[in-house]
């Protein structure tokens, strides 16, 4: 029996949530924008009305305002979007227990065995649309396919353009539906990859699908093979219920409000990132043994930066230990050019129930405990209750970040 | 080698954009969904626990009390300060615990 997989995608999710709150703005163009005085001040979501005037996500706020006079601008409320996303998960779970969130506004579900109860795929899809709309005033688009990649491409390429927001991309009909589309529309074919393909005279998805897979493998390896499979609509991935369970790594990144070029300044925010990562590790009761540091250079045109990792002597979730290794990485790989973005992550996770005591460092046990004690204080009195002295320097981002999720206000 | 790769959920887990806070919220929800029922100890079992509790009270012996709270096990270690046999509860580290939610009392 063929499976029936849905990808449910929310139309202009953030903007729709905001519109539902500010009901008097229902018929006016609305955008959700980050703080315009900072780098995060770009359009995060634009409602369909605003999109009609040519506003695109990721634009600067002033560009959008120029395109559309009378534009309503609201700041983001990330926590509300997360809460709403979970309400949607609950709605979807009323149809089937096989629901896998893919991002904040997209979720996969397997309705193969719900058809006896809820009707054919189209009926289920419009039932879901109705439920979500009546609860949250958000319009959902549904891509249907026999596997995840077909559902995703059905949604991205067809449901979003459909009047009713539903499209069933059937494998037998790919030749007429998917294959005439330009190669850029293929799932996982990014800008760079599409360029490469175009250079080899592969301009449509169909042209890739008709190419001999061995040639593609020779040229682009596994990634090419994956693309070729996507073009044929072949995907064996299951709907995974456990994909958010196990944690393989804990990482946090931040885009700086301005480019940092002084080592001392960078170290301040690096320490703060290490603290955040370690705190999350302690909360999850794990320790990590591998620390990795990613740095992006300031220039958008010439992309510079590095991503390097290092194994530490012992698993740890102590901020200062992780910081020391992160600093080492920074010292050895940083090209001394201004930087825009930093990312720290901790992987090879172990339980924190057993620790290696050090022969040379008598205090290690106590130092580890110290982290947990500060966490308790932070839990009780807020994220800025205990901060390091270095975080009082102007370069610090602690205060700014404590009020944010994903770089935007809660 | 087949022309079709089977690599589990790798493509999707590798390509998704999930906020840590979102994943945290999903986990929290799942945790709540897997609630434990309230324990229902027999009279004999409760008597057994009573002995350990009394010993702790009279001889200041440290014990670990495991009790149920909103679907989860809570664990407290300390010396029992008071036993209220009428109210069917005992006091540990300044907090009252109802005996209906008790799961275990063990000497440390």
TrEMBL record, chain A:
GO biological process: DNA repair; DNA-templated DNA replication; error-prone translesion synthesis; SOS response
UniProt cross-references to CDD domains, sorted A to Z: PolY_Pol_V_umuC (cd01700)
Cofactor entry: Mg(2+)
EC number: 2.7.7.7
Keyword Cytoplasm in annotation: yes
Reaction(s) the record says it catalyses: DNA(n) + a 2'-deoxyribonucleoside 5'-triphosphate = DNA(n+1) + diphosphate
Location(s), subcellular: Cytoplasm
UniProt keywords, alphabetically: Cytoplasm, DNA damage, DNA repair, DNA replication, DNA-binding, DNA-directed DNA polymerase, Magnesium, Metal-binding, Mutator protein, Nucleotidyltransferase, Transferase
Catalytic residues in the record: 106
Coiled coil: none
A GO-annotated cellular component: cytosol
Pfam families in alphabetical order: IMS, IMS_C
Domain (UmuC): residue spans on this chain: 5-190
Cofactor binding description: Binds 2 magnesium ions per subunit.
Function: Poorly processive, error-prone DNA polymerase involved in untargeted mutagenesis. Copies undamaged DNA at stalled replication forks, which arise in vivo from mismatched or misaligned primer ends. These misaligned primers can be extended by PolIV. Exhibits no 3'-5' exonuclease (proofreading) activity. May be involved in translesional synthesis, in conjunction with the beta clamp from PolIII.
Family: Belongs to the DNA polymerase type-Y family.
Subunit record text: Monomer.
Protein name: DNA polymerase IV
Organism listed in the record: Salipaludibacillus keqinensis
Taxonomic path: Bacteria, Bacillati, Bacillota, Bacilli, Bacillales
UniProtKB/TrEMBL annotation, chain B:
Domain of life: Bacteria
Protein name, entry field: YolD-like family protein
Taxonomic source organism: Salipaludibacillus keqinensis
């Amino acid at each position: 029996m063929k499976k029936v997989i849905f990808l449910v995608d929310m139309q202009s999710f953030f903007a729709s949530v905001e519109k539902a709150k500010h009901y008097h703005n229902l018929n006016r163009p609305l955008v959700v924008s980050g703080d315009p005085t900072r780098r995060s001040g770009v359009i995060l979501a634009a409602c369909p009305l605003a999109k009609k005037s040519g506003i695109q996500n990721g634009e600067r706020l002033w560009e959008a305002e120029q395109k559309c006079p009378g534009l309503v601008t609201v700041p983001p409320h990330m926590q509300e979007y997360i809460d709403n996303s979970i309400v949607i998960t609950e709605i979807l779970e009323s149809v089937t227990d096989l629901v896998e969130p893919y991002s904040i506004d997209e979720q996969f579900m397997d309705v193969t065995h719900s058809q006896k109860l809820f009707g054919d795929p189209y009926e289920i899809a419009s039932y879901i649309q109705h439920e979500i709309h009546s609860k949250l005033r958000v319009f959902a688009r549904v891509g249907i396919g026999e596997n995840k990649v077909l559902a995703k491409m059905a949604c991205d390429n067809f449901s979003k353009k459909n009047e009713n927001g539903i499209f069933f991309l059937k494998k037998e009909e790919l030749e007429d539906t998917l294959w005439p589309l330009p190669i850029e529309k293929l799932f996982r074919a990014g800008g760079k990859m599409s360029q490469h393909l175009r250079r080899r005279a592969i301009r449509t998805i169909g042209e890739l699908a008709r190419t001999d897979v061995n040639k593609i493998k020779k040229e682009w390896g596994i990634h090419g093979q994956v693309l070729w499979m996507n073009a044929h609509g072949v995907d064996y991935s299951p709907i995974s219920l456990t994909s958010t369970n196990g944690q393989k790594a804990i990482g946090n990144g931040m885009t700086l409000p301005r480019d940092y070029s002084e080592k001392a300044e960078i170290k301040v925010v690096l320490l703060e990132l290490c603290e955040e990562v370690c705190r999350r590790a302690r909360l999850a009761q794990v320790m990590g043994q591998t620390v990795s540091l990613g740095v992006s250079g300031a220039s958008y045109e010439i992309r510079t930066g590095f991503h390097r990792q290092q194994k530490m002597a012992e698993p740890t979730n102590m901020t200062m230990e992780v910081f020391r290794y992160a600093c080492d990485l920074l010292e050895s790989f940083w090209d001394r050019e201004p930087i825009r973005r930093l990312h720290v992550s901790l992987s090879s996770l172990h339980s924190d129930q057993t620790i290696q005591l050090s022969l040379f460092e008598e205090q290690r046990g106590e130092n580890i405990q110290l982290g947990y004690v500060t966490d308790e204080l932070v839990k009780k009195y807020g994220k800025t209750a205990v901060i390091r002295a270095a975080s009082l320097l102007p370069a610090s981002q602690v205060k700014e970040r404590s009020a944010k999720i994903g770089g935007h206000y809660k | 080698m087949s022309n079709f790769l089977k690599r589990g959920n790798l493509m999707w887990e590798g390509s998704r954009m999930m906020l840590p806070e979102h994943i945290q919220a999903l986990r929290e929800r799942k945790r709540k969904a897997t609630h434990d029922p309230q324990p229902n100890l027999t009279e004999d079992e409760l008597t057994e626990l009573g002995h350990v509790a009394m010993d702790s009270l009279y001889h200041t012996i440290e014990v670990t009390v495991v009790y149920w709270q909103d679907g989860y096990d809570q664990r407290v270690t300390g010396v029992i300060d008071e036993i209220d046999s009428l109210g069917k509860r005992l006091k540990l580290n300044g907090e009252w615990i109802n005996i209906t939610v008790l799961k275990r009392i063990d000497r440390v």
